[in-house]
Amino acid sequence: MIEVISNLEFTPFLLSFKLALLTTIILFVVSVPLAWYLSQTTSKVKPFLEALTALPIVLPPSVLGFYILVSLSSNSPLGAFFEETFGIQLVFNFSGLVVASCFYSLPFMVQPLQSGFESLNKNMLEASYICGKSKLQTIFSVALPNSKPALLTAIVVTFAHTVGEFGVVLMVGGSIPGETKVASVAIYEMVEIMDYGSAHVYSGIMVVMSFLVLLSVYIFNYRLKRKVGLS
Amino acid sequence: MIKANINKNLHGSNGNMNLDISIMIKQGEFLALSGKSGSGKTTLLRILAGLEACEGSIEVNGVMWQGENFKLPIQKREIGFVFQDYALFDNMSVEKNLLYSYHDKALAKELLELTELYELKDRLPHTLSGGQKQRVSLCRAMMNRPKLLLMDEPLSALDPLMRTKLQNEILALHKKFNTTTIMVSHDPSEIYRLADRVLVLEEGEITNDGTPKEVLLKTQGSQKFSFEGELLDIVKVDVIYIAIVSIAQQIVEVVISAQEAKHLEVGQYITVSTKAFAPTLHS
To answer: Each residue of B120-132: pLDDT tens digit?
Structure first.
């Protein structure tokens, strides 16, 4: 057992976290305006946008992975554009993984934020406009600070979900060590070559870490609610 | 001077209704809006604030706030608005709530001292009582020295004692800043104490417009006591009937004849009146 642990390669974990961190940051920037729009709009487009954002939850990762692969490969217009202009190939490397993860984890960022914004007291937002503040200022000074539980849930769940993704990563990134071989893919390979010892250790680490992350979110939310007397 | 011609279709609880209002309000006037719930009072207030769209025009001190195909954004109207539920920013301390509106520390201090809140300036809203929250909300509304102060039933959630105290503060602030104030209120004594003028709205239209005395005093010139109340119960005692009536915050008993008892129904709104040539007043 000790031998297994001391021989353990931590690169897949680091890669998983790097990917999750980048994805979370990008998604946060993209999702705040999107979630805000969805929470405030009365437009008929809303259900379509909501359905579209929720798609990655129900689609098999292979379907999502397939489309991302097709649309980002160097044969596609988008892939060709990136390759010619920036010299970046978007599939079977780390940047491709980030793009794929952003699609895959989008609902996990948008949905908690949206419901957080929706549950804010509308009068409070209107009071901010009356104070002469723009929508952007209102989002950052009033809406986000008053949606802390939703904010934390969105960030942590997105992060955790990205760490835990497997299908899309495998489709878009393959399993290139140090580049696209993240923890979940590494575990899959260990099981395939029947290296159950390492698979146990890796899986164990994943379970414990995921549990701790979720636990801290729930504890934080519980405390916050008690503090403001909501529960 | 505020000139407004407002038209808006509303879908209220009583079906469709047309809010059709044309008013002129003088600078510095304290106007009370009264009327049953669903008569369009809050909507009128929200339209003036720019929180709701409507047709028509609004002109304030010579500046167009709304015209054809034009609506001045809420942010540029520089009004004060006091919400019924206070709508304080929960993430900011009392003082920051004020400074968020307009960064003027001296004015914030002055307002908080006036309303006896300065000691609480670092507290978060959720630690305050209802009366304190409403005072913070009032102070916040005054931070930009508004030309127009709008209040939507600001005191309805407070107990009578706190109401009286806050009424004085509202009046003091109204005078100090020489604002034009429009307040939605159901409370006749509140309207009488504060307002120069009362508008009564019914089904989206102004049905009465005058001084509080003209509008609220039901017994002009007839030397009568007259009160409106709800008939709570009719009790038969021997051969007489006693009606128990709730008037304002008090319950009174009135002797009525069997004939009268027949025609009254419990739950009805009735008028209790009597000749009052020489009533005595006690403190």
So the answer is: 999 999 999 988 9
